[in-house]
């Protein structure tokens, strides 16, 4: 039951990504290319998603103390702003600007039958494995949330 | 390569993404962050922690074929860049999102919706890095 609900939510997420244009890496790269072939569409994707979820979260957290089919809201994240957060975000932005895919936009493209998304997600997985290998060498260790 | 400005489709699709993030928190109390979902599926802390993430991923993947078959919606997902760039970008994204514990969905859509200062710093940093990277590749290096 729970897994069916979650997969339907995944379906909604994936359909949103595909309809919004976020799944098209050329649109993403053009969003970043203000001086060139600028396409501001992604501001509408992120703005639309944020406004809906911000209202959803804020109303829900005021009205409910727990989720419908689980015991607690898992919303506690580490509050420190450290070198891992900033350095990691910087690396992410660089990789995003190179390839045009971010993780949430790339997963729904796996169902397209094209090879590029499979290659991106595989490389992404290797990057996640690589981080787990170098993590003991970093000053602060935090769980990936 | 120019792409078409699609404010309405982008707003509707974005709203669907936001709604799914709200629903995931409302039903099972979890953050709809693709980084956490993917890394938690790759390295599950327990069987239950792995299975809901796999279900979410399968639903996300199924969206493509379902939209294509039922509605004839087949958006382009093929980058105009070469595969070496896709591989390099993918690897760097993988390291980066793991290090910063989140990406566009986790920090951008979920973190900002709970007014997390940490997520705001992450979003401003990765968006800024994206603009600078594309500027360098397209206008300085001439890629």
Description:
- Chain A has six helices and no strands.
- Chain A is mainly alpha-helical.
- Chain A is globular, with a radius of gyration of 18 Å.
- Chain B has helices at 7-28, 34-42, 47-71, 83-99, 104-111, 117-140.
- By secondary structure, chain B is an all-alpha fold.
- In chain B, helix 2 packs across helix 3 (47-71) and helix 5 (104-111) crosses helix 6 (117-140).
- Chain B is globular.
- Chain B contains six helices and no strands.
- The interface between A and B is large, with 122 and 116 residues.
What is the number of strand segments of chain B? 0
- What is the average of the pLDDT values of chain A? 93
Q: Structural class of the helices, strands and pairings of chain A? A: mainly alpha
**CA-to-CA gap between the ends of chain A?**
24 Å
Oligomer: heterodimer
In which range does the helix fraction of chain A lie? 55-70%
Could you write a compact summary of the structure shown?
The complex is a heterodimer of chains A (145) and B (143). With 145 residues, chain A is mostly helical. Chain A has helices spanning 2-20, 25-32, 41-63, 83-99, 103-106, 115-134.
Quick tags:
heterodimer; A: about 140 residues; mainly alpha; about 65% helix; globular; B: about 140 residues; 6 helices
